[in-house]
Fold:
Amino acid sequence: MQRCRVTLLLTVGLLALSTAGFLGRDTIYQNYAGDVWETPFFSLVFAGLHDGILPWSDVDAEQDVLWESTAGRNPRPAEEYAVVQPETEEASERVLETEGTESAQPETEETCPSTERCFVDVDESWFDDALFIGDSRTVGLRDYGGLDNAVFYATVGLNIYDLWTQEFCETDGKKCTLEEALSARRFGKIYLQVGINEMGRGTLDGFIEEFASAVAHIRELQPDAILYVQGIMCVAKEKSDTDPIFNNQAIRERNARLAELADGSRIFYIDMNEAVCDGEGNLRQELTFDDLHLYASKYDIWVDYLLTKGVGQKG
Structure:
């Protein structure tokens, strides 16, 4: 009799989880969904729980949605959307000191005036000694951007306040902190993008102070690397217009302050919003499934933008 009760409870629980997974397959669990035989509905709930997504979660209220699904799986078929080519603009010039490493001087047909350094077009070999540090948006770049030779220290929910305490990096098959990872290996370029998870937390000045401290410490650990401070990617218009925390006015205020961290020497500010936003500064709706993150098929836009931001020097 006791065994029958246990079996009944397990069956009811499994049916409840399967129902929750089925109902959420196109919303909160869309990044986990796949073939129903390989990924039954109840397993979607367990995958979501692992990343802090509860069956009653509102996907629009999540601060950071998991992109770490099975590699290569798009949230929706890519053919449903036309590929949007990135907008281009003339490369901006920044005067740099002559110090540097060979990795900071790519072979390219683009040249800079006199002995100045500036942004130039590069190919994907530019990223062979590159490191990307970031939150779930960078996780998406890792999984869908095709930058296979770059190193990624990225995890869902990462923020500037936990940057040095969380063990989200991996070296020699072991999890470690960012400081341990940066002490173990040299990089030619480092791309840092965090900031969306910090929205609504603390003050603007406090955020910038913490970010500036992180930039300074990265420079201490990797003095020969070019450091890219990447602007926070904006959100779609509907979310920006209705969310008191995750809105583009607040994001632009933070990005303006982040841009001031560039020193014209070894630290550069780049803003991929130039490539993914509309004329009003909103993330283009056709590029995002949740108003916060890019579709897997759209990460090539980010990569194409980065390919216009190599650093070159003439003379």
